[in-house]
Amino acid sequence: MESETFLTIASESSGIYKDRGSKFLAFAYPVCSEEEVKEKVDFLRRKYFDARHHCYAYRLGADGSRSRSNDDGEPANSAGNPILGQLAARGVTNVLVVVVRYFGGILLGVGGLVQAYKQAAATALANAEIVADVVTEIWQLTFDYTDMNRVLKVVKNMNLEYFGQDFNMNCVLKVKVRKNQSEEIKKRLESVKSLKII
User: What pTM was computed for the model?
Assistant: First the structure.
């Protein structure tokens, strides 16, 4: 049976690891999309523009099935994979970890790099508050203006988070729905004839 919760981090955290003059600054972020990943990585590239490497890994989705790692010029699988391994070991998802490396003049070798990136990521995650989050879906509700009160009553009674509203002749409302409540919400909305759920 599919779980209704997953582990993630409550907020941004960081850590640092040093080895033979090289400094590894690690940053962990809660994220929900590839767009957010790109924004955070780009931000750190600008902020630490003088660093040699900006390696990262992320896991997305309640089951962590959407994942990616990037070595950013380090030898293949010496940076991104060890970071990704720490995310998997902690069992967290919807999380990005970026490790910014300042080269200290001494080559660490592939084994040394694997260890350094692994430890830096582990430090950032150890400093994070790991929390359980609920599996949700985003629904777009479209309905006639005449049905607005009925739809909003269900939204209010079911305590749904809503955003992206547009109330004209045809109303559009985006809501965040807990997966375990989706059937009940559909049942409560089925009497609204003009309603379409996308």
Answer: 0.77
